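In the previous chapter we treated chains in isolation. Here, by contrast, the input contains two separate entities that must be folded as one system, with a combined length of 601 residues.
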Amino acid sequence: MQLLLFNAFNGLIQGVFYALMALGLALILSLNSVINMAHGGFLVIGAYLAYTLSPYLGFWGALIVGPLLAGVIGLAVERGLIRPIYKRSDPLYSLLLTFGLALIIEDLTRTIWGAQGLPLEVPDVINSPVSETYFFITGYRLFVIGITAAAAIGLYLLLRYTLLGIRIRAGTSDLETTAALGVNIYKLRALNFGFGCLFAGLAGVLAAGVLGLTPPMGNSLIMPSFVAIIIGGVGSLFGAVLGGLLIGLAAGIVTTYYPAASEAVIYLMMLIVLAVRPRGLLGEEGLFE
Amino acid sequence: MTRAATIAAMWIALIALPWWLPLIGGYTALGSKVLIYAIATMGLNLVLGFTGGLSFGQAAYFGLGGYGAGMTLKYLVPSTPLAILIGTLVGGLAATILGPLVMRRRGIYFAMITIAIGQLFYFVIVRWNEVTGGEDGLAGFGRQDIHLGNVVIPLTDVNFYYLVLLCFTVAVAVMWTLLQSPLGHTWVAIRENRRRLQFLGVRPERYVWASFAIAGFITAFAGTLNALLFNFTSPQDLHWILSGDFVIMIVLGGMRSFFGPLIGVIIFVVAQDYLSSLTDNWMTFIGLIFVLIVLLFPRGVFGIFDRRAKIA
């Protein structure tokens, strides 16, 4: 029982990272119509920049600045590389472009910071176990859950109540009309892409505290995030979060009984969902609906 | 030069390859690898270029073919033709069974689902250690000499190259015939205007399924040859990075052209071979190739010459 709880909780934490990644991916997917294969790259950028900056800024400063820098780099990438190919209606090109970026980012990370794993120091205040029986529930893990919940709620409020959020949702459902109504959709898409990358960076810093840093860490998190989106339902941000948590939890539980299948199970879940309910659990039009 | 003459010249160059390739610093196995990847990418291009389905997980069927062939040789029978047959069936049937889950999807969603399905097979192979060798890959099998009646053909590097060339020729003939048939024309119609086809009373899903399944068989066929070429196969043969490589090879050559993928494969495989011997950061350069092709040469090498080829 203890073991099951242990694995389930570990799975839930993994699921939180999937959910954060999937949120950013889904944002970019719906408004920019781009499958951002480089999303794992932005996660790695956020994590490594936080690692490099933490001696100067401390953990808390790095937790804020790392994701912000990932977002800024995302803005630059969108402006320089993605924007020129929006006019090509075939999504193939953005897929290949971001795929190339993913390769470049992983390789450069390895060159700059080395291939070995690096640890991200987490302050003792939040790193101690909450109870002795449940040693695996460290304060940091609860903190990760808290930050993610805050980020998701913040995004929800932004999309629901601010002008920017309303424009993003409008652009998602009908980009042309939104443009015709006088919204600068280039700026809108750029900001949205930046937001997505910011979420990836945040996932990176948080994940680094649990898993440590390695150059391929982003690429191993991105595939389950796709699955999270497919299971949760394309077009629904809440679905992406739900999907991420579900597959993380499922992988954790399966680890207890049959560790070899812990990765395969999430893809099996996806196949089942696709066969039974092709649009995903919450797959409906519009964001957060 | 007419088309027929170009194609004849191409085959003469391919037949003579074991003589001229070493002269310019290549080796016969590199020629085999190019032809194997050409079979795989031309097969994938049935879905990608001709049917318009963004299949981004094709390496899964390539790898399944390889494992099917390797495991046949290792555990079942020491026979090269049977290994090729069984491997092709394993990969092809996997694509056929999963086809219904992807055939209704379009664009981005087709891509995401094919990628994710590819990962399923990747993890099955990686984790099923006892049988597949896990992360280390499957070794301990070797391609067997071919027995034709009383004649025994030893599969040396050069002879194996000719076997691959024979397989390439057969695959090309099959694909060419398919594309000339009503089935092939329906594929192109789906790519050009799926909705109008539905108005005509055609159900595109079935044809997308057929396209996906046939591409799966052909890619798996290439995968079996790949395993036999190296007498080894590893999970990297199923990885989504290889899937991406296949797609960029096709785009590089020109996805609207039948032989385009072959050109893309030649450029990409030679560049990869050369770059990885030159620098440790070859992945960065491969990534740059992706970015530059997308930004500057979206129509591929063939597209530069062929004005009719347009960007969809």
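The longest helix of chain A spans residues 39-82. The interface with chain B takes residues 29, 33, 35, 37, 81, 84-85, 88-97, 99-104, 106-108, 111, 223, 226-227, 229-230, 234, 260-261, 263-264, 267-268, 270-271, 274-275, 278 of chain A (CB under 8 Å). Compare these points with the single-chain example from earlier in the chapter.
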